[in-house]
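Incident review: delayed structure delivery

Summary: a single-chain prediction request sat in the queue longer than the usual turnaround. Root cause was a stuck worker, restarted by the on-call engineer. No data loss occurred. The affected request and its eventual output are reproduced below so the record is complete for anyone auditing the incident later.

Affected input:
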Amino acid sequence: MKRKFLSFQMAFLLVSMNLVPVISHADELNQSESTPADGETNQTTDSSGGVEEPATSEPSTSDSETNTSNETGSTDSSTTTESSTPVEQPTNNQEAGQTAPVTPKETPTVDSSAQTTETGAIDPSDQEIKIVKNEPTETFIRRIGEKARAIGQKNDLYASVMIAQAILETGAGDSDLSQQPYYNLFGIKGEFEGESVVFSTQEDDGAGNWYSIDAAFKKYPGYKESFEDYAKLMKEGTDSNQEIYSGTWKSNAVTYQEATKALTGVYATDTSYDQKLNAFIEEYELTEYDKERPSTSASGIIVTDSHPDSDFPDYSGETFAGSEAYAAGNCTQYVYNRIVQLDGYVETTMGNGMDWASTGKANGYEVSNQPKAGTAVSFQPTVAGADGIYGHVAFVEHVYEDGSILISEMNVAGLGIVSFRVIDQNTANTLAYVTPK
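Output delivered after worker restart:
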């Protein structure tokens, strides 16, 4: 089962540079370092020139040309702010509503050996962006990767670019706005189906001067809707320019590098925005998500915690009461949590993975050899790679027309790691399926 996500404190290094006001999550960290942290409000800054913003009487930002409201529901922040909506004070991430103090999971490091111009300023075109891979960011990628793949394939967009933007804009999922119950991965302002949340944010007036405003940001039911709304923005643009992001489409951008270049100076004013996105894409091999289908290991394992073929809402990662009866990070605890998340009930005494069928029968559960979505599927030892002593248990996410099944499971790819597999029809018919109460 998937472990509950926690905030990871990690040290970061960002070399100060003589650049225009930065717009990305990574660069915002430089500003937050000089901001009082004890009891004082840390503000965010506006970075995403392409995000939908509510109309405001405040000075326009440096990227205001693309920060226009459109038909997707952007509204004036004064009209979306309600007394019942708490105004949170974000820090570090300019658009993502992060509350102080939070150190992001990962920050691009700028090589100080970059070339300088005749005036002594560092030339942004020569800077080297370095990424150090870490497990929290890999976990975030697994959580959103398959959603990005599905949306990218459907909308002629690079999933790799979307994932890299989500990492950069949210600090790999650390920002409050990107987490439950907001799920806003791209800092898009306005309303989504009438839902929004107000955060205090800093914006640039175009002359390097920062001012604070309260802005309404879209609140989504989940990451899937956040990706879909972002894709709509990329494909439909803004009211003033419907093709403003056409340079990011696969049909127009032969490579992901061309797509990230098209975002630079348009979606974001950061002159090194594309280099940062490219660095994430390369270090984490995000181009794997640009492929039509997920790559699988020799055993067919797809390391991810969501799958477009599933019949159910994505696994939330929550740990429910009673799960402590099972070994942490193992298959039994995961299946218990997955079932409870979907409003099902299963005993806390089901035993090892191989025992769920016999224990289920003894406790009055429906148990059969007929594959069925939404059931716990029990594997006897060594069957389909199950442990030779304890067996295995997984959750059936979908039954295909040919009789094969899609399962989600934990501790096959590693302790606490959620993964998916497709089990062939012949094997599926030998397994035992326990229907939750």
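Verification: The mean pLDDT is 77.
Action items: add queue-age alerting; document worker restart procedure.
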